[in-house]
Amino acid sequence: MEANCLSENKEFKAHEYVLADMLELLQIDVGLESSPTTGMDMNCSKNVLRKQRNWEKRLAAKKMKRKAEKQRRKKNQTMEKDTLQLSKRVIKAITRERLAEAKLSGPRLCVDLSMADCMSHKELSRLAGQIRRLYGSNRKALCPFHLYLTEFQPDSLLYTECLRMNDGFHEYAVGVGSSFRMEMTEQSWLDLFPVEDVIYLTPDAEKALETVDDETVYILGGLVDESIQKKMTYSRALEAGVHTARLPIEEHMVRRPNAKNFHSKILAINQVFEILLVYRETGSWEKALPVGVPAGKGYMLATETTAAAAEVKPICVS
Q: The pTM is what?
């Protein structure tokens, strides 16, 4: 019995050794097979980390670039705003100087509003708009006039329309006599200026205006061009016994052919004023008249007809 047990023990141990050797071989093979896979995983992890770091660097660089661009734009906007504000101050200062000089020594222009009662509500509204444009043009002019609104009644419909249509009108209406606003008065221009210094500009005058000088007071009748009342401004000037003149449209312009054969020399007060401003700056009626005479009035410069004729090619008949 003991011999059999010893024999069985030896065989069992021998099997254990064999199994142990097989397991050791298996562990070695497993280790050899698994090692390349672990290396690939490590390499893949390194690549992913490297790409992630690069991506983070690029993202950070973009953020910095956007921040710098935002700061640059903000700085430029601040500089532009400061420059614009400075320019506005400079322009206002120059405008005040020019208008102050015009008040002291420049030509005077008066809009005669004594005929306001002869116009309809619609015509008064149009006149208020023309006064606004006239005032704006004078402020921008290199050689401005000293402006007056005479017989301008504060309780009139025209005054109400000026307040309604012109932003800030009440501000420069209050500042009567200041160097950078129109002077507004209930008085007549006959009470303000000597008759011998006045020229009343009216399209019905026989004599053409030759020049614009600083010693003369120019009067514009406050009538809109829609008014059907003929020669009202001319009659007003004759009653006052003052000199009259018309713009030299006939002397420097010719009639433009049109289907309706319409030709009119009646202009709005702001159009007449634009012509006077440009003439005072340039000394040329050829440059001044086209600024205020619209093509719809049926007139063009005489030089334009010469140029048009020169462009016509002769027809050769064979």
A: 0.66
- When pLDDT is averaged across residues 20-28 and rounded to a whole number, the result is 53
Amino acid present at 309: A
Note the pLDDT tens digit of each residue in 86-114.
677 777 777 777 777 777 777 899 999 99
Helix ranges (H only) for 209-268 are: 232-240, 249-252
Rg for the chain (alpha carbons), in Å?
46
Q: List the one residue out of 129, 113, 223 whose CA is nearest residue 167.
A: 129
Q: What is the dihedral of CA 280, 285, 289, 291, to 10 degrees?
A: -50
Q: Phi and psi (nearest 5°) for 313?
A: -85, 140
Tokens in use for 155? 């309780």
pLDDT at 4 over 90: no
- Measured in residues, the chain has a length of 318
CA-wise closest residue to 275 among 254, 302, 247, 245: 247
The order of strands in the sheet holding 108-112 is 183-184, 146-150, 108-112, 217-221, 198-201, 243-245
| Identity of the residue numbered 162 | C
C-alpha closest to that of 146 among 201, 210, 193: 193
Nearest Cα residue to 137 out of 274, 299, 289: 274
